[in-house]
Amino acid sequence: MLFTPDGKVEGLTALRGFFEPFVAGSIDELLAGFQMDRQEVHGVLAYIVWNAGSIIRLGTDTIFVQNGKMKYQTFAAYMGS
């Protein structure tokens, strides 16, 4: 389950539907500019702050892991203008 500023996304099909358009056509540039700015882990909870250069100026995720799998995730990104 993914929580975003626009609402909850649940299930593999819905998650794929959320992320595919997000990275479509820009995955190579996005990955080339990707930089992890901060990473904190405490038990089952992980918090990351990242950017992808001029494509995504600020991204943040909080991830809850249960039984070795991502159970819940929050995501927000500032794309800039």
Overview of this protein structure:
- The chain has 81 residues and is α+β, with helices and mostly antiparallel strands.
- It has a single domain (2-78), classed as Roll (Nuclear Transport Factor 2, Chain: A), CATH 3.10.450.
- Helices cover 23% and strands 54% of the residues.
- It has helices at 12-23, 27-33; strands at 2-4, 7-9, 34-42, 45-52, 56-66, 69-78.
- A six-stranded mixed β-sheet has the order 2-1-6-5-4-3.
- A hairpin with a 2-residue loop joins β5 and β6.
- The termini are far apart.
- The relative contact order is 0.19.
Please give the structural blueprint.
Elements: E1 2-4, E2 7-9, H1 12-23, H2 27-33, E3 34-42, E4 45-52, E5 56-66, E6 69-78
Strand content: over 45%
Task: Specify the structural class.
Answer: alpha+beta
Largest sheet: 6 strands, mixed
Question: Can you tell me the CATH topology?
Answer: Nuclear Transport Factor 2, Chain: A
Q: What does the overall shape look like?
A: globular
Radius of gyration: 13 Å
What's the number of structural domains? 1
Q: Roughly how many Å apart are the termini?
A: 29 Å
Sequence stretches where pLDDT stays below 50 over 5 or more residues:
none
What is the H/E order?
A: EEHHEEEE
What's the mean pLDDT score? 92
| DSSP helix fraction | 10-25%
State the CATH architecture.
Roll
Adjacency order of strands in the biggest sheet: 2-1-6-5-4-3
Q: How many beta-strand runs?
A: 6
CATH class placement: Alpha Beta
Provide a count of the helices: 2
